[in-house]
């Protein structure tokens, strides 16, 4: 059977896992304005500005939906004295309730749970929400009853209110605290229910769903074939109570289905079931993947090429149609059959792959082609391949050469890289089947060896026969060259989890080879760890060369975007999270003679010229004879034909398109340089510059605010702290941000 489903290799949205808990802030004299769709609602200060920590942002760009963030009026009531905690907006849609409404309740699962009433926004009253079964089950699992929940209908003044910041922002980030909250809820809901064993896999069907976000109009064909197979049970999530839905992820070996809110339920139970999610598009929503990441789910995302968007159905936002539902059903069965109960990780050691011909996968040194060779073959001609155990979030094997890092090739793969990556599936006797992640074809060790004990290997088989099944063999699995040994050992010791590697202790050679092998620009926390190293400049070119590539699925991370390699290579000092590609003019002066410093969080537009050295005008000629010295062999000396003056750009500076910074320019923190400006001299902090020559046309903030920002120096904070304060920073209410940050700083 030809494999039809294809692995998802992209995603829609950002992915970031934050280990630190979200920010928790206390506000005084806050006015609660009742919910009004697309109107002014939320928590407001007496001056009408929204309490920024109370706003639900959506998507990777932090959009505000259905809410006006300003209000003018007076409170009609004053709340009774007591403790209150803000819970956000209640959404009656199951998936949005889990992702949005649940996101602020993380303090209720912690050891220092606040004794407070929970204040929500939403339609109706608390009794009505407790009549919604899944809402009642979740809130009661958190120890809440209707009397503990307030949904007000009049503007009300609260003298004190605790505002937990969100632990989940759609398509942007998730905190580990969100998974801890989910586990707390799930444990309470399942505490009196025994976990059953030996149940079959389950397919979650949407064929009986009366309405919703999306559905597939011919999913019934997939359902029918799966039912006939007899090895998988068909269930309809909307017919199950929350307790039974959670139990699926605790009791079933596989939970399979099209992407939908039912898979968010996995957050209520530590990972046990393996998930296979059938996406209608090649780039599924990252909300699913962030839940997988926080919960450490073993999830696999596939889609069917040719899936089409059909005519509108008033019951659903989108209606899709599978191209070959029969093939899709058989592929799903095949994926489960090959993984089986032994889908668990193999081991953490390095090993060779032995074929059924008593040979080993190897690399032919003459042309770097993957072959299989008998154990007695001339080892000078071959270098064995290694396979590591799969990581926690993917079952992909990595095959790489053992000595020089060359571009290796496997016939039929159409891919030449230092590492070729294939899907690893395990048989019941713990042998390995390797499958191409896109075509679904199997790696074949073709029968028959030549006079040198070498046979062909290709990606061409549509079914896994005996010659596609390999046995892990630790014999002879020696650590390769010293350059790779550090990386390979650490990768093995941490069980294939990139995030668990100790990058701070790796040598430069090992880190460089890591980037050449795995392109880990998207992996969690790697770049921020590397930036703390004193030898970061030596590693930087490899980080930069991979920074624009597509992030591997399930490992999305907001990677630091840095300046072009040659800037760092010339010895200039470039801050964290600064981006842009300016042209640097320095003549032939060395890095010791020129000085350029750019601070943190600077935004540098296109076509920027930074001049750190200019032509020598005090000589007879301004012509750069030194630069073109090859034309002037006579009388050449070491005299420079350029004069250098340092250029210093502060932190949080925006330089607009086509700006020129002349030698000796000093740009203060927070300044804005308008497009086409030509700047020299000293620019005050937070000044706005325009024109040629550049002149001050204004300031971003009043002097009192500028002084407080310069004292705070938020740009020197670690990334995790900036992330926690972003809801406050991404607001025009600068004073409130400063108030909270200064108070928290004094508490430290």
Helix/strand layout:
Layout: E1 6-7, E2 17-18, E3 24-33, E4 39-40, E5 42-44, E6 57-58, E7 63-64, E8 67-68, E9 77-78, E10 84-89, H1 94-99, E11 117-121, H2 126-130, H3 133-141, E12 149-151, E13 156-164, E14 168-169, E15 173-175, H4 176-190, E16 201-204, E17 212-216, H5 219-229, E18 232-235, H6 242-251, E19 254-258, E20 274-279, H7 286-295, E21 298-303, E22 308-309, E23 316-321, H8 325-339, E24 352-354, E25 359-364, E26 369-374, E27 382-384, E28 386-387, E29 396-400, E30 408-409, E31 416-417, E32 419-426, E33 432-435, E34 442-445, E35 454-461, E36 469-473, H9 482-493, H10 508-518, H11 526-530, H12 536-546, H13 565-569, E37 573-574, E38 583-585, E39 596-598, E40 603-604, E41 609-611, E42 613-615, E43 642-644, E44 647-649, E45 654-655, E46 660-661, E47 666-667, E48 672-673, E49 678-679, E50 682-683, E51 687-690, E52 695-699, H14 703-712, H15 719-729, H16 734-747
Helix pairs in contact: 5-8, 9-10, 10-12, 14-16
């Amino acid at each position: 059977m030809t494999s039809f489903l294809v692995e998802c290799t992209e995603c829609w949205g950002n992915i970031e896992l934050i280990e630190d808990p979200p920010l928790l802030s206390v506000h005084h004299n806050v006015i609660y304005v009742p919910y009004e769709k697309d109107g002014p609602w939320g928590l407001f200060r007496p001056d009408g500005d929204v309490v920024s920590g109370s706003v639900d942002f959506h998507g990777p760009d932090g959009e505000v939906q259905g809410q006006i963030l300003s209000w003018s009026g007076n409170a009609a009531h004053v709340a009774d004295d007591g403790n209150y905690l803000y819970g956000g907006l209640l959404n009656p849609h199951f998936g949005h309730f889990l992702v949005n409404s649940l996101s602020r309740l993380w303090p209720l699962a912690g050891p220092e749970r606040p004794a407070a009433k929970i204040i929500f926004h939403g339609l109706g009253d608390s009794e009505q929400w407790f009549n919604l079964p899944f809402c009642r089950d979740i809130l009661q699992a958190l120890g809440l009853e209707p009397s503990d929940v307030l949904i007000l209908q009049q503007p009300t003044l609260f003298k004190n209110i605790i505002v937990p910041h969100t632990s989940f922002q759609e398509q942007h980030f998730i905190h580990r605290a969100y998974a801890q909250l989910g586990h707390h809820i799930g444990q309470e809901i399942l505490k009196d229910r025994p976990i059953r064993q030996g149940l079959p896999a389950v397919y979650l069907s949407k064929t009986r769903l009366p309405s919703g976000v999306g559905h597939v109009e011919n999913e019934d064909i997939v359902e029918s074939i799966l039912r006939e197979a007899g090895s998988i049970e068909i269930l309809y999530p909307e017919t199950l109570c929350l307790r039974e839905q959670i139990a699926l992820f605790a009791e079933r070996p596989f939970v399979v289905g099209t992407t939908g809110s039912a898979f968010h339920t996995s957050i209520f139970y530590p990972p046990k079931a393996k998930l296979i999610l059938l996406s209608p598009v090649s780039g599924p929503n990252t909300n699913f993947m962030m839940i997988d990441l926080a919960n450490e789910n073993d999830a696999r995302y596939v889609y069917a090429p040719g899936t089409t968007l059909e005519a509108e159905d008033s019951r659903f936002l989108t209606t899709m149609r599978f191209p070959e539902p029969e093939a899709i059903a058989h592929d799903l069965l095949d994926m489960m059959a090959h993984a089986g109960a032994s889908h668990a990780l193999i081991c953490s050691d390095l090993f060779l792959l032995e074929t059924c011909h008593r040979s080993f996968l190897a690399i032919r040194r003459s042309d770097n082609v993957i072959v299989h060779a008998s154990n007695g073959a001339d080892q000078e001609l071959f270098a064995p391949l290694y396979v590591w155990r799969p990581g926690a979030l993917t079952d992909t094997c990595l095959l790489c050469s053992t000595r020089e890092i060359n571009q290796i090739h496997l016939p039929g793969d159409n891919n030449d890289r230092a590492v070729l990556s294939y899907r690893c599936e395990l048989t019941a006797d713990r042998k390995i089947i390797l499958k191409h992640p896109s075509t679904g074809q199997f790696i074949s060790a073709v029968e028959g060896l030549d006079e040198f004990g070498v046979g062909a290997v290709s990606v061409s088989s549509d079914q896994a026969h005996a010659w596609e099944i390999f046995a892990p063999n630790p014999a002879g699995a020696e650590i390769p060259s010293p350059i790779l040994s550090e990386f390979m050992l650490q990768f093995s010791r941490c069980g294939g989890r990139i995030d668990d590697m100790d990058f701070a202790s790796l040598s430069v050679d090992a880190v460089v080879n890591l980037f050449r092998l795995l392109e880990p620009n998207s992996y969690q926390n790697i770049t921020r760890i590397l930036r703390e190293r004193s030898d970061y400049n030596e590693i930087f070119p490899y980080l930069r060369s991979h920074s624009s590539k597509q992030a591997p699925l399930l490992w999305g991370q907001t990677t630091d975007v840095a300046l072009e390699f040659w800037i760092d290579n010339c010895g200039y000092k470039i801050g964290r999270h600064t981006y842009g590609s300016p042209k640097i003019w320095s003549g032939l002066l060395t890095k010791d003679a020129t000085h350029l410093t750019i601070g943190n969080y600077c935004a540098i537009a296109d076509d920027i010229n930074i001049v750190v050295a200019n032509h020598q005008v005090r000589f007879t000629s301004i012509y750069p004879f030194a630069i073109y010295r090859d034309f002037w062999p006579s009388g050449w000396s070491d005299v420079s034909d350029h004069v250098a003056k340092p250029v210093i750009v502060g932190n949080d500076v925006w330089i607009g398109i086509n700006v020129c910074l002349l030698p000796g320019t000093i740009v203060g923190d927070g300044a804005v340089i308008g497009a086409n400006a030509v700047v020299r001299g000293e620019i005050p902090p937070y000044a706005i510059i325009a024109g040629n020559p550049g002149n001050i046309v204004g300031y971003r903030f009043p002097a009192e605010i500028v002084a407080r920002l310069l004292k705070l120096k938020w740009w020197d904070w670690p990334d995790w702290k900036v992330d926690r304060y972003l809801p406050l920073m991404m607001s025009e209410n600068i004073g409130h941000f400063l108030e909270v940050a200064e108070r928290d700083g004094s508490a430290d």
